[in-house]
Amino acid sequence: NLPKPMLHSDIKGEVPNVRALMKEVNLFVDDIVLNVMFIIEYTILLPLNSPYTIL
User: How many CB atoms lie within 10 A of CB 4?
Assistant: First the structure.
């Protein structure tokens, strides 16, 4: 038995999986970026703007 060549439908079936994976990776990266910006904002920007700066 020879291995069957990959059908076009098989390849098309893989594409949504890749898209879903990329979407999850993008969401994960977005979360990290938001968290980092949140931390930066609260540790650097707020103390700078606050009249009660804690040194």
Answer: 7
- Give the tokens for residue 26: 């993008």
Tens digit of each residue's pLDDT (9 = 90 or more) over 25-53: 999 999 999 999 888 888 877 777 666 65
pTM: 0.47
What is the spatial distance between Cα 50 and Cα 37, in angstroms, rounded to a whole number?
A: 18
DSSP result, the chain: -PPPPPPHHHHHHHHHHHHHHHHHHHHHHHHHHHHHHHHHIIIIIHHHH-SS---
